[in-house]
């Protein structure tokens, strides 16, 4: 890395330049940057008192809150490693991640108190649990108020190449894998976000997407660096989102297309003052043109699409507000570009390569490879998967099949890796297939994405039962609810009497199963 910057610089700068400016608005909780820095530095010292050293992993299981924001800023500050957990995961998935990452301290809010108590028993590596809630902490837990109430300390020196966070993503092997993002990676991504989104001290960003998602995390350090204001709601709700934008004069927001559709169709949408909103970033999947035009009319803000992935911290490319304005008006080539993932952002190199490692020409389909200071250090304790994802020249092989047009716009057409994106969430087929196959009545199954107007793609399963076994959709869904997150559950299931189609080598032919659903569509993903 060309500089010695670590994540601590963002809050240090904001406190020095904007100390009395409001930094956080979370319901009745209002902190200036000086007060936020005091909470963060005190929490840093509090982790010292728990015996949590540089390199130790600290997990967070919580909805969005001011305390959750403190965790993002405090945990990596002096060299500890943030492990922000997807709150939608099933207990068995959370248990695996906490044990796999050797998480030492776990932060839990009121909404996840019961599962926190369960995980404390299931994960012997957890030495302390910190209660982020407003209620009294359970016996044996420390409280957030206790850890942030004492004196702070300066940030310890940290190597910019040290891991700042482990962010777990689904795995093609069926087990989640943790992408190791360094200070260098996340600082680079913050700079990329600032160039792309042009945040400044007058901005108020609404944390409505979950904080555990890097899509939202991309703005945590970027906005802090320029002294912007963090407006926080616990989770996305279209009515609450609309009311908060109006009440807090929110200028910036990030949503996935399904959320945008819910906002546009909410009964209060037309009667809410949304004039403060300057820009909306969306990602996860392209937005249907009808939803986009309705949202642009309602919100009167700049729209941009961001394409990325956990392994890239996460930003890779963006479709600009001008592309959206002119595309929504039906002007070509902009209308056609609404189906694209835009062009690589400043600081990131994204190219399309063929199977032999040769660069593809315009319009030629290959795999997207990405490199830059934002690319992960590798997967936690997964040397084989790291070696297959990162090559010697620093390219990350994304697993997304795409082509570039003559103007450098990336068009994602399929996924090399067996993954779906449903409502902005990554779902790996193997994880769902493993869970289905563990049912005694299942002989074989295949899981894949099919088009869905609301979710972009929905998870679909094709199942063959064992001879003589009684099996139905309710039985399968009940079985899965104990094993995987709700958003990974199949939303539709076909039961087959005949074996699923296979190649001569015995390999399952999912493309044959997918074909009836995607027939006539240019893209094989949504």
UniProtKB/TrEMBL annotation:
Single Gene Ontology MF annotation: long-chain fatty acid-CoA ligase activity
Keywords: Ligase
EC number: 6.2.1.3
Domain AMP-binding enzyme C-terminal: 431-507
Keyword Ligase in annotation: yes
Residue ranges of domain AMP-dependent synthetase/ligase in the record: 12-380
Gene3D superfamilies in UniProt: 3.30.300.30, N-terminal domain of ligase-like (3.40.50.12780)
Pfam families: AMP-binding, AMP-binding_C
InterPro entries: AMP-bd_C, AMP-bd_C_sf, AMP-binding_CS, AMP-dep_synth/lig_dom, ANL_N_sf, ATP-dep_AMP-bd_enzyme
CDD domains linked: FACL_FadD13-like
Sequence similarity: Belongs to the ATP-dependent AMP-binding enzyme family.
Protein name in UniProt: Long-chain-fatty-acid--CoA ligase
Organism the protein comes from: Paraconexibacter sp. AEG42_29
Gene: lcfB_7
């Amino acid at each position: 890395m060309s500089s010695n910057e670590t994540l601590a610089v963002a809050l240090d700068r904001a406190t020095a330049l904007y100390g009395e400016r409001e930094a956080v608005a979370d319901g009745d909780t209002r902190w200036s940057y000086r007060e936020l820095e005091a909470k963060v530095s005190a929490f840093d010292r509090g982790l010292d008192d728990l015996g949590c050293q540089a390199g130790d992993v600290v997990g967070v299981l919580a909805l969005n809150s001011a305390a959750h924001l403190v965790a993002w800023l405090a945990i990596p500050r002096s060299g500890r490693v943030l492990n922000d957990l997807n709150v939608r995961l099933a207990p068995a998935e959370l248990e695996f991640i906490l044990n796999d990452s050797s998480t030492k301290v776990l932060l839990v809010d009121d909404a996840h108190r019961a599962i926190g108590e369960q995980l404390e028993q299931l994960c012997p590596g957890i030495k302390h649990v910190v209660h982020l809630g407003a209620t009294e902490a359970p016996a044996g837990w420390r409280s957030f108020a206790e850890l942030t109430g004492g004196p702070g300390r300066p940030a310890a020196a940290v190597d910019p190449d040290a891991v700042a966070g482990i962010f777990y993503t689904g795995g093609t092997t069926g087990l989640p894998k943790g992408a190791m993002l360094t200070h260098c990676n996340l600082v680079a991504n913050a700079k990329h976000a600032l160039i792309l989104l042009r945040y400044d001290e007058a901005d108020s960003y609404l944390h409505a997407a979950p904080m555990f998602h890097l899509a939202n995390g991309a703005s945590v350090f970027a906005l802090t660096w320029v002294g912007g204001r963090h407006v926080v709601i616990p989770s996305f709700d279209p009515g609450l989102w609309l009311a908060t934008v109006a009440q807090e004069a929110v200028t910036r927001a990030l949503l996935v297309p399904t959320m945008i559709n819910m906002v546009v169709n909410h009964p209060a949408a037309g009667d809410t003052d949304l004039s403060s909103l300057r820009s909306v970033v969306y990602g996860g999947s392209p937005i249907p043109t009808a939803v986009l035009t309705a949202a642009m009319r309602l919100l009167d803000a700049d729209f941009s699409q961001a394409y990325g992935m956990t392994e890239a911290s996460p930003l890779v490319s963006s479709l600009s507000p001008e592309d959206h304005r002119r595309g929504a008006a039906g002007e070509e080539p902009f209308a056609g570009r609404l189906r694209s993932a835009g062009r690589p952002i400043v600081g990131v190199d994204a190219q399309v390569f063929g199977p032999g490692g040769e660069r593809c020409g315009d319009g030629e389909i290959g795999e997207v490879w990405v490199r830059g200071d934002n690319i992960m250090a590798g997967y936690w304790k997964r040397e084989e998967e790291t070696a297959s994802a990162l090559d010697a020249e620093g390219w990350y092989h994304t697993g997304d099949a795409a082509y570039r047009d003559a103007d450098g716009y990336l068009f994602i057409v399929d996924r090399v890796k067996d993954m779906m994106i449903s409502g902005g969430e990554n779902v790996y087929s193997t994880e769902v297939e493993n869970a289905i196959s563990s049912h005694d009545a299942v002989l074989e199954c295949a899981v894949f994405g099919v088009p869905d107007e609301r979710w972009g793609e929905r998870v679909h399963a094709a199942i063959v039962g064992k001879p003589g076994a009684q099996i139905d959709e309710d039985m399968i869904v009940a079985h899965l609810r104990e094993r995987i997150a709700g958003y990974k559950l199949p939303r539709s299931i076909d039961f087959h009497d005949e074996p699923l189609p296979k190649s001569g080598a015995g390999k399952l032919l999912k493309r044959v199963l997918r074909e009836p659903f995607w027939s006539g569509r240019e893209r094989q993903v949504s």
